[in-house]
Design brief:
alpha/beta; about 120 residues; 3 helices
């Protein structure tokens, strides 16, 4: 989904996008300077909805001036067992609202995060 306006991505926005349990949610914005952000209530809703993973391009994972840690959005997602795919690139190439996502992490020992090859497959019309 392409979130075009700045400001907070809300629960209502996520519901309007049709997100449901077991989805891998990919959020993107074409805005570079006034990027939208995921509100804490929306993060809690994603956790309660039991999504499989969350990825973003040009969307901040927490409200502005939020300190890093277990209480920010990516900390909440990770503590709930939901992988957070940060700094994805090229999501504007996706043309369908629902796709098949494959994430191939790099094999690295003793780290908490790594690069991921993100692959999206779309159904042919």
């Amino acid at each position: 989904m392409d979130y075009r306006s700045g400001g907070e991505v809300t629960i209502g926005d996520l519901i309007d996008f049709g997100i449901k349990s077991n989805d891998i949610v990919l959020l993107r914005s074409s805005l570079k300077k006034t990027q939208p952000y995921l509100g804490f209530e929306a993060v809690d809703w994603l956790i309660a909805t039991k999504i499989k993973a969350f990825g973003a391009e040009n969307v901040h994972h927490s409200p502005p001036d939020t300190e890093f840690g277990k209480d920010d959005s990516d900390g909440r997602l990770l503590l709930a067992g939901i992988p957070y795919l940060d700094a994805l690139f090229g999501l504007q190439q996706i043309t369908k609202p629902r796709v098949f996502f494959i994430g191939l992490p790099v094999k690295i020992k003793r780290v908490t995060a790594s690069w991921t090859r993100a692959i999206v497959l779309e159904e042919i019309d």
